[in-house]
Amino acid sequence: MIHYVDETEIKNKKVIVRCDFNVPIQDGKIIDNSRIIKSLETINLLLKNNNALILMSHLGRIKTAEDKEKYSLQVVRNELSRLLNKDVKFLNSPVGMETMKVCKELKNGEVVLLENTRYCDLTERLESNNDLNLAKYWASLADVFVVDAFGSLHRNHASVAGISTYLPTYIGLLVKEEINNLNPVIMNIKRPFTIFMGGAKVDDKLGYIKLLLKKCDKLLLGGGIANSFLYACGYDVKDSLCTTDEMTLDEIRELIKVYKDKIIMPIDFVIEDNKILDLGDRTINKYKKYLDESKTIFINGTCGKFEESRFSHGTIALFSTLKNNSAIKIAGGGDTLNAINEFGLQDAFTFLSSGGGASLEYISNNNLAALDYINKHTDTNRQ
C-alpha cells in the first residue's frame, strides 16, 4: 500500500528524494522553472522536520559524452539555492566514492543535489534499465526514500522505482496533488469528455491515442499528429511534419474507420514554406464548439509551432476559449505547459499536470509502472 510523505513524521533522517527537475534550458538558462517550484512543498516539509536531503533527478537524455555537459544539473542547483534561500551543495557525479563521502557527512538541515541520474546511462543504460546494483548504491546513501517525480512515474528507472527495493518509501506531495487532480479524467468522468491532442510525432503517442479513443467522446487533433491523420486519409500535407511509416498509417486508417464519429480533424491551416505550421481560425471555431459542449477536457500538445509568434495564434486562441468554460480542464505535457506559461493562460485551466508522458499514461491506462513497482516493495521495507 502506498503511503504519502505527510501521513507520517519523517524526522531527523537522511532522505533521498527523487524530484523532477527535467526543465527546459536554453543558452544555459532555465526558461521555465515551474517543475522546480512544484517540488518545493515536499522539500520544505522534509527540511522543516530537520532532515538531511539528497536530491536527485534526470535531465534530458544522455547518449554521448557531449550530452553530459549539455544536460548538467548545475543550473538547477543554482535555481534551487535561490528558491530555497539556502546553499544547496552540488556533486558533479551521481555515483562514486566522493558522492558517497559527501552524502554520509551531510548534516540535518543540509541539502545536496546529485548530478543527472542519466549520466549512468552513457555506456550501459543502468538508470533506464533499473539496474538494482545502482539502485542499491543510491539506497545506501540514505535512511528513507521519497518519490516526488510524477513526470517519471511511468518508467521503472533505478532512481524512480529501484531504490524502493531497499528503503522505506513514501510518495511526495507533488505526486499526491497530481493523482488527486487527474482522477476526474479517470474515474466517474463527467461527459461529454473531449481531448485535444497535438504534438510533433504521432508515432510517440499512437498507443495512447488508441486507449484514449475508448474513453473520450471527441478527440480533436492538431500539430504533426493532425498532419499524419490527414495524410493517412489521402490529403496532400506538402512538406509538413508527418509520419510516412506504412504500418503506422494503416493503424491510423483503421482508427479513423472505427472512430469516425469521435476523431475531429482540422479544416484550415497557416502554411509557410510548404509546411503546415498552425491551425486556422475556422478550425479553432470548429473545435471551440466541441469544447463548449464538454464537461471534462484534457489538453496535451499545441496547435502548431507556437515557439514562433507568427505560428502561435492557434494555440493562444484555442486555449483562451477555455477561460469562460465551466468544464473540468486539465492540461499536461512539457510543450503544453511551456505554451500556457509563456502566454499567461494558467487561469484558463482547472489543473496543470507537470507530467507529459506520465499524465498520458495515467489517464489512458489508469496506472503508472513505477507506482506499481513501489507498491510491491514499500510495505516490506517500511517494517
Structure in words:
By secondary structure, this protein is an alpha/beta fold. It has two domains: 185 residues, Phosphoglycerate kinase, N-terminal domain (Rossmann fold); 179 residues, Rossmann fold (3-Layer(aba) Sandwich), CATH 3.40.50.1260. Helices cover 39% and strands 16% of the residues. The protein is built from 14 helices and 16 strands. It has a six-stranded parallel β-sheet with strand order 5-6-4-1-7-8, with helices on both faces. Helix 7 links the parallel strand 9 and strand 10. The longest helix has 15 residues. The protein is elongated, with a radius of gyration of 22 Å. It starts with 13 loop residues before the first strand and ends with a helix.
